[in-house]
Design a protein that fits this description.
Chain lengths: ~140, ~200
Amino acid sequence: MGRKIELAGWEEQLRLPKEFDQLLEELHNQQGPDVFSDLGLALGWWPEPIPPGMISKVMAAIVEKDKIQAQFNRRIFRLTGLFVTVLFFAALNFLTRMGTVGELTAPLRLEVGFFLLFACLGVGISVLTVSLSVGEGVSEKRLG
Amino acid sequence: MEENRLIIKAQNGDHDAFKDLMENHQAKVYRLLLGLLRDEHAAEEVTVETFIKAWRNLAGFRQESTFWTWLYRIAYRAAIDYQRRSLPEKNLTLLEENIVSKAAEPLEEVIAKDRNQELRQALQKISFPQRAAIILYYFQGLSYKEIGRIMQRPLGTIRADLHRGKKRLKELLTRQWRDDDGKENRTSRVGRTTQVAERI
């Protein structure tokens, strides 16, 4: 840092356009993410004290979120398992009647309709799950 | 080297390794956020949020940048989100907290902090991206490239933000001093400047 800056004081320097730029450039050269130069200190960039307990707060939140995530994953897994089983039996039932598809009665048509409804729901849920995981992947990529 | 080992361990789910990483970087992240948000409670809240997000996205960190640059990027985005959701109530809260914190501090600290209030207040009045660019470039000593990575903006925009921010800062300080000069005695300012110069 120049002697001129040291003697004149930063307020006086900031009042002069050329010196203002010079002082800030000097500041840039002296400072770092963990470096607090005298000039930085004089300009109000202090090593502020860190509030206690931040790490424990983060760890508690991480453990809690992991727990919630695990519970959610378990529920989704069970629900999906149940849904796939139901869909499988419905498909099996439908396929056994396919032989007489030309003579579909009204109640059977209703069953086919229900099957198609559930199948659509299943596809919808799958698409939603895939989009969510892709979205998460994209967000991770952006941060990484 | 040590840090890379900790990152890999944390990526494999090791809580202790992540704790060590946090210990190494929490001060940096907190002070950056304090500079950006100018509110201790907000900075603490967003620091915690930053590390939670970092943990959740750690698997995606491919060491293409330094770990702290990556953390800064998350912190910067978290600060933007915080600003968006708390802007209407922020001014009143800040005012109340400043009154409380000043009353609780020793006189010497209050005097020392007041000495730097002008620049801090001026920084608070410039737009968020300009403030971020000024803090990252001048007070954190980062390069344009690093700032571009953190703010995820092109280098030209960063340069423009810095230029405009610096110009606005200069205007604000000049106006503030002009007002002050009308009110207070000039000699007290010279005395104050000498004190700062002595410290440097």
